[in-house]
Amino acid sequence: MTTSPPLPRTGSEAMRLFLPQSPFVRYMGIELVDLGEGSARLRMPFREELVTVGDMVHGGALAGCVDIGIMAAAWAGARLPEHMRGVTVSMSIDFVQPAHAESIDIVGTRLRAGRHLSTCRVDIVATEDGRLIAAGSGTYKVG
To answer: Which of 109, 116, 115 is closest to 136 using CA atoms?
Structure first.
């Protein structure tokens, strides 16, 4: 007899279950560091597969981190929607400076949560010294 995994009771539990199972998150090497009420901190260790030239992390990898940060912040906390689904509706990113052969932290914050739409901000910072690499924002639909 096999047992299925327990269903999440909170949005944070849903993220803890989802993130390690996502093929894209696994490919990027992103790890969950912390979840709070409307906040998420993740880490992407440096990997040569994610560079554009030399040792500079590709902008597409950084954009993927912003997208994942928006999702994690939108779900983070006690709120759990009736339907377990979600999608990024819009996203923008400003690249501030390059990341060179270094791990980055993805710091997501939910600024506002409506019935279905959440507005989130994400800072991509160098893990070692906290330098701002990129800043993004977006809207995420939960449920």
So the answer is: 109
